[in-house]
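Dataset card, provenance and construction

Sequences and ligand SMILES were collected as paired inputs. For each pair, a complete structure of the chain with the small molecule in place was predicted and serialized as structure tokens. The example below shows a pair involving pyridoxal-5'-phosphate. Curators did not alter the output after generation; any descriptive sentences attached to a record were derived from the structure itself.
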Amino acid sequence: MEYNFSDRLKTLEGNAIREIFSLLSRPGIISFAGGFPAKETLPVAEIGRITADLLENGGAQQLLQYGGTEGYSPLLESALEYARRTGIRETSVKNALIISGGQQGIDLVFKAFLNKGDAILVEDPTYLASLHILKTYEGRAYGVKSDDDGLNIEDLEKKIKAYKPKILYVVANFSNPTGKTLSLEKRKAIAALTAKYGVIVIEDDPYGELRFAGERLPSIKSMDADGNVVYVTSFSKTIAPGLRTGIAVADEQIIRKMTIGKQATDVHTSTLSQAIIDGYLRRGLLNPHLKEIIPVYKTRKDAMINAIRCYMPQEIAFTDPDGGLFLWGEFQNGFDVDGAFKEAVAETQTAYVSGRTFFASGDVTNTFRLNYSMSGVEQIDIGIKRLADFFKKKIAKKIAK
Ligand SMILES: Cc1ncc(COP(=O)(O)O)c(C=O)c1O
């Protein structure tokens, strides 16, 4: 049958990273392409104990029953407390909505605000799933230039004036894909500028707690005087992504609209997942857990940076993040690392993600993302050396031409 799909999805391709998973599932491949937390960091035993306790003593029937869309009340409180670690001042659960992962929070904000053709500003490059989601609402993404410390504020104001966007989407801490962090001054400038021009900000913060260097910075939401910032975070990178649980914090009116949108999406986030996360937070397990897992990420990031310094050609500039799961490479000589992807995987048995799909325009071909959370230090050294040798050979060929 010839299916008559909606205009919204007709031309939309699958998420590029999900599409390459099949290519990477072959044995022996070292993959720096994914973005999962290290599997060794998942708190399996604690989650097992909490779940058993909840089912035996916590009112199993309630936890296996339908719940309210807003969220499981104890978690609304404990997760709001978690979000308040970033300086957020909201104390009422009326300002909070439990979401099925941060990605759903982004989706619900777009759902609440976007009409067909509305403009959205994103840092260039940005989280590719957000580009993907906004296309499903037929929004138009415009990229804002990025400096070493995040969004370029002059370009932001220029593009606010030019495109009159409804929304600015930004990852302030250890961004996916670049690993960059917005400076304090820029956070203040973004809060002030977006309030001045009436732009909604989605502050997406899945990685903020995974800081292994430098000082924690307050969220943009903590500087929100006008109620235009929606803060979205989840427990995917700090506890476990499979539990699909996060929180959005925003003005009550925005939360109300997001709640209505969520009713239509999934009714509510799994009650059992919510109760497990709440149990984890209330037992005080999060801080000790973070203390254990942050050094794992730091060790892997350091191993990748050391290998890069040792093997990679000078023509590539890399970021050196203070936290999170990713770093970013950019060929200063314009090498088409996007076009070279399949050959690179076949020849080196090592994978990166091309940066192309992280740009609003989708046409930048000289950048790539490397994930360091999912490989051990030895694998990191071997994989970076293999990629470096491949890139050096390609650069030498290009010069010889
Ligand atoms: C920047 C960013 N935002 C949001 C998400 C979504 O995470 P989740 O829906 O698991 O909370 C991710 C996941 O990798 C991400 O990198």
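Derived descriptions for this record:
The chain has two domains: 7-42+288-400, 65-282.
The first strand starts at residue 30 and ends at 31.
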